[in-house]
Amino acid sequence: VEAKAGPPLRALDIGAGTGLLSMLAARAMQAARSSGGRVDACELHPPMAELAERCLRGNGLLDDPVFLHKARSDELKAGVELAEGRASLLVSEIFDSSLLGEGVIPSLRDARRRLLAEGAAVVPAVATVWAVPVSCPALRRHGAGAERSEVVALHWAAAAARLPGGGAALLCTPKPMLRFDFRRRDVADRGAACEGAGAEQVE
Predict the structure, then answer these.
(1) pTM, to two decimals
(2) Which of 93, 118, 147, 203 is catalytic?
(3) Which residue in 137, 12, 154 sits closest to 77, CA to CA?
(4) Would you say residue 165 has pLDDT above 80?
(5) What are the residues whose beta carbons fall under 8 Å from the beta carbon of 50, sequence distance 6 or more?
(6) Catalytic residue among 43, 102, 147, 200
(7) How far apart are CA 115 and CA 117, in angstroms?
């Protein structure tokens, strides 16, 4: 964020949550003595949006330079809610435990098409999906994913740890499977650019 805080910075925060990334962008503008900057933060869920509003107000940032919109990003318009026009920086944390489940790809696609300036920076810029097979008898017993095998997805390991006798044993070293580069323009056309990586076969 600090590296992109050139004058004047116009940032968009999608899925602002508590407003942390918006506040970091605002502080970066202040540290760079960037005048005329603006951060537009959008948060759909009312309880979280109320919390963000309190955090921003408590830090003296609400409505200058951070403007909070209690809406989805695809409900915003450049030149209307984004009063200064298209943003030069996108910050977001709309990832879940499987990376893409909170709609980061369609959100980024829409933002690139309507809300971001040409060449806008994206933070975070890249993400990697890792995978590893595990052995978890508790998941097998409770039918939480494994059918006839004790090899199940690591995605369920946290849930397994809460089961009686839970816990999962890794069967090999975790391996990177997919790398997503959110900076590439083709994310706006056909989803994030993916680079595959091989995984060792478990004997």
Answers:
(1) 0.77
(2) 93
(3) 12
(4) no
(5) none
(6) 102
(7) 7
Lowest-confidence segment of 42-46, 83-87, 102-106 by average pLDDT: 102-106
Annotated catalytic residue 50: no
* Catalytic site includes residue 147: no
User: Can you tell me the mean pLDDT for 36-60?
Assistant: 95
Q: What's the rounded Cα separation, in Å, for the pair 169 and 161?
A: 11
Residues 6+ apart with CB under 8 A from 83: 38, 67
